[in-house]
Amino acid sequence: MSTQRFDIRHAPAPRESFRLLYISKSKFGGDWNSTTHTHSCTELFYCLSGEGQFYLSGQLFPVKPDDLVIVNPQVEHTELSLNASPLEYIVLGVDKMEFLFNRADTSYAIFNCRENRERMVTLLHMLLAEADRSLDGCETVCQDLLEVLLIWVVRCTTLSLQLEEAPRTENRECAEVKRYLDANFREDVSLDLLAEIAHLNKYYLAHTFQREYGISPITYLNRRRIEESKHMLGNTSYSLAQISELMGFSSPSYFSQCFRKAEGMTPNEYRRQTRQGKRPAPTKRHEV
């Protein structure tokens, strides 16, 4: 009998604070709408097949099978595929972790992992299967597999990990949309227009804006209009129809509906209470 024994002389490192947020497998089709965007987490893309390009911080980089694309938080990016050879990849979103690259001013990188394809693809498909089944202990298994995967990424590259949580920064696209709404709330504004301004899919924009500010873009727009209308109700003699038109509402009835929902009373009731001294007349809001 032949035996090989290996003693583990060191205690395992403490469990890390980073966490797998999501994992998905995608293949480009004719209906793919590629738009640039950012995330508050780190993303890792493993290209399984096909060819395409990655747009990263204003530059285009070709990608091919077994390329690993690493994108740190708040890096503007998107994926582009060649129609003749549709790009297929698995992507992971990891929270509370960033990669440290050789250059301090770099927030993304692309590595080819062909020599380690079998190991990498096996781990990724195990992660996908575990997340898909969602059995008891799924979160623990996914975390274990993620840590093994990241160890292999570090071993196969010249990278290291930064596990301290970086200070949260405001999403750039959401901040741009918010500034636009503050400056143009009297205009005819739609979610499609805001998505065009931010260069984002409108559903992704609505989700990200809600996560960033706790309110949808259109609800924020209406609240902004309501605040200005309160000033006009308390300090001018404009009719409801005039105020509705000046504030960009589609009709006086929609204005009244939004006002009642926000303030718990009709615009006329608000005006009457203000004039009777039951509530102070609001001052005009100034943007800094």
From TrEMBL:
It comes from the Bacteria. Keywords: DNA-binding, Transcription, Transcription regulation. Gene3D superfamilies: Homeodomain-like, Jelly Rolls. Residues 175-273 form the HTH araC/xylS-type domain. Signal peptide: none annotated. The keyword DNA-binding applies. This is AraC family transcriptional regulator.
